[in-house]
Automatic annotation (TrEMBL):
Residues 125-230 form the Mandelate racemase/muconate lactonizing enzyme C-terminal domain. InterPro entries: DgoD-like, Enolase-like_C_sf, Enolase-like_N, Enolase_C-like, Mandel_Rmase/mucon_lact_enz_CS, Mandelate_racemase_C, Mandelate_racemase_N_dom. It holds the Pfam family MR_MLE_N. The keyword Protein biosynthesis does not apply. SMART domains: MR_MLE (SM00922). Coiled coil: none annotated. Gene3D superfamilies: Enolase-like C-terminal domain, Enolase-like, N-terminal domain. It comes from the Bacteria. The keyword Ligase does not apply. This is Galactonate dehydratase. Keywords: Lyase.
Length: 381
């Protein structure tokens, strides 16, 4: 079997899919994307495709090595995401070739269903408690929220109180039997994070995400020392070597993104590295159905898995949503806050190719907003 074509599709709301076909008719789907830079990743996939044409798609690890290292320059969001989507598509083909779901090829399922959480609120959390009630009614057992909008470098007492009040309102609506994850989104400076972590601890967060920007990771040990809440990071880390310092710093939860951190192959290794540090896996996934399916395959076969992000109804999904691109939504249906084990060969979903091709004709040009402080200076989004 040989790879004969690699195509990419720029689809709303902000995603990029890739389709790898073979001379024997098997097709695999992947989702190589950096949110806001989808066109750049598309160009990277086009370049990597030069190597793939004519290759045996089942030699996934060999291709991963060549694709990540063979261009001499390596790593970073764009190249790692391009490889990630290709890697997902190759695993999809492998599963179909061996007539097995990917989790079976990874050693078999270690769980019967995968716990997922839902997002509440947007970038500027507002009517949060109604959203929480809707999720509770739908059976969700965990939600995640942004703790703040624009955050001053040293927050005022009022800002600090507002963050605690906002998170507290969600905790109140959620009750004590469900979990609340809090995302700082890299918006906090080190002094702000030092103030926020003890203030949020009484609300018992499941995790506090990106308490610092990745480039300030060398200060994580100081935050770990003062936080009783589990600290999480990793949506902006792309390789196990990026995760090692964070794990040595003592973070509790790693959050690699299946579409950024080298795909199924590398996230499995990141999970294993986390396991050796006693840390848990909670993959980042505010993305589309292919990335979610790849995440679920890893969750199903990884012992130190905690919880999975998914984007159904997320605030970014304007104009299109996750289930618009699958022929059958049933495998991704959330029941009692969980998605059941995927049983179909490959990634376990059927991409609606006609819908994808149609959506690509209009494409998208999604960009994240650029935020400013009151004085006009740049603020982290
Ligand atoms: Mg996040």
């Amino acid at each position: 079997m040989k790879i004969d074509r690699v195509e990419t599709f720029l689809v709303p709301p902000r995603w990029l899919f890739c389709r790898i076909s073979t001379d024997q008719g098997l097709v695999g789907w992947g989702e190589p994307v950096v949110e806001g830079r989808a066109e750049v990743v598309r160009a990277a996939v086009d370049v990597l495709a030069e190597y793939l044409i004519g290759e045996d798609p089942l030699r996934i690890e060999q291709h991963w090595q060549v694709l990540t290292k063979g261009g001499f320059y390596r790593g970073g969001p764009v190249l790692s995401s391009a490889v990630a989507g290709i890697d997902q598509a190759l695993w999809d083909i492998a599963g179909k070739a061996y007539d097995a779901p990917v989790h079976a090829l990874l050693g078999g399922a270690v769980r019967d269903r995968v716990r997922v959480y839902a997002w509440v609120g947007g970038d500027e959390p507002g009517e949060l408690t109604d959203a929480v009630s809707a999720h509770v009614e739908a059976g969700m057992t965990a939600v995640k929220m942004n703790a703040s909008g624009v955050l001053s470098p040293v927050p005022t007492r009022a800002e600090l109180n507002a963050v605690v009040a906002r998170v507290g309102a969600v905790r109140e609506a959620l009750g004590d039997d469900r979990d609340l994850a809090v995302d700082l989104h890299g918006r906090a400076t080190f002094p702000a994070a030092r103030m926020l972590l003890p203030a949020l601890a009484p609300l018992h967060p499941l995790l506090i995400e990106e308490p610092l920007l990745p480039e300030h990771g060398d200060r994580l040990p100081e935050l770990v020392a003062l936080s009783v809440s589990p600290l999480a990071t990793g949506e902006r880390l792309y390789h196990r070597s990026d995760f090692l310092p964070a794990l040595r710093a003592g973070i509790s939860v790693v959050q690699p993104d299946l579409s950024h951190a080298g795909g199924i192959s590398e996230v499995r290794r990141i999970a294993s590295l986390a396991e050796t540090h006693g840390a848990l896996l909670a993959p980042h996934c505010p993305l589309g159905p292919v990335s979610l399916a790849a995440s679920l395959q890893v969750a199903l076969s990884t012992s130190n898995f905690l919880i999975q992000e998914q984007s159904i109804g997320i605030h970014y999904n304007l104009g299109a949503d996750l289930l618009d691109y699958v022929a059958d939504p049933e495998p991704l249906r959330i029941v009692d806050g969980h998605i059941a084990r995927l049983e179909s060969p490959g990634l376990g979903i059927t991409v609606d190719e006609a819908a994808v091709r149609k959506a690509d004709r209009s494409g998208h040009a999604w960009r994240n907003p650029v935020w400013r402080h009151d004085d006009g200076s740049f603020a982290e989004w």
